[in-house]
Amino acid sequence: MFFDERTKPSDVLVAELDGVVAGWVKVQSAFPAVTAHAHVLEIGGLAVDPGHQGAGVGRRLVEAAVQECSRLGARKVTLRVLRHNVGARRLYEKGGFLPEGVLRGEFLLEESYVDDVLMARHLVAPV
Ligand SMILES: CC(C)(COP(=O)(O)OP(=O)(O)OC[C@H]1O[C@@H](n2cnc3c(N)ncnc32)[C@H](O)[C@@H]1OP(=O)(O)O)[C@@H](O)C(=O)NCCC(=O)NCCS
To answer: Which of 59, 79, 81, 115 to mutate to test the pocket of ligand 1 (most atoms within 8 A of CB)?
Structure first.
């Protein structure tokens, strides 16, 4: 099920083309119970329908997510992306995200341990 205690409908922005959902992005807090982390929000998932990829939907969803994070008061937006997901990493780089760390061997996929890259875009310069 897509929606549960961790994902409310208000956490998800959708891209609509001709009345059809072409993609979605989820904005959330990684540590909702931690006040000291309240200034950081994350893109917790992003996908564009294969039939609509390559047309700028992902770019617009990333920008909409960043705007939503700003509206909610975030100073920093983070996300995690598999190191081998070159297209998504390029998309995020174009959206102003920079790598802040690599989680080595974070996932076991098809019998290989693969890296996850932590990326961030600072909306307010860190002091
Ligand atoms: C990654 C994904 C969201 C991109 O969405 P999209 O709508 O196709 O992306 P856009 O058309 O907005 O592309 C914007 C930029 O991202 C980069 N990009 C996107 N897909 C790319 C690819 N396959 N290879 C290289 N660069 C890519 C390009 O720089 C592109 O700019 P350009 O068209 O000027 O070259 C989409 O491919 C997808 O849903 N993939 C499966 C799910 C996924 O990987 N989600 C991310 C999880 S962290």
So the answer is: 59
Task: Count Cβ atoms within 10 A of the Cβ of residue 43 and give its class: 0-12 exposed, 13-18 middle, 19 or more buried.
Answer: buried
By most ligand atoms within 8 Å of CB, the mutation choice from 90, 103, 107, 118 for ligand 1 is 90
H/E stretch holding 67 reads helix 57-71
Atom 13, ligand 1: residue with shortest CA distance: 56
Q: Which of 20, 92, 24 is nearest to 59 (CA)?
A: 92
Query: 86-94 and 57-71 helices cross at what angle (nearest 10)?
Result: 50
Q: CA–CA separation, 112 vs 32, rounded Å?
A: 32
pLDDT at site 1 = 59
Q: Note the pTM of the prediction, 2 decimals.
A: 0.96
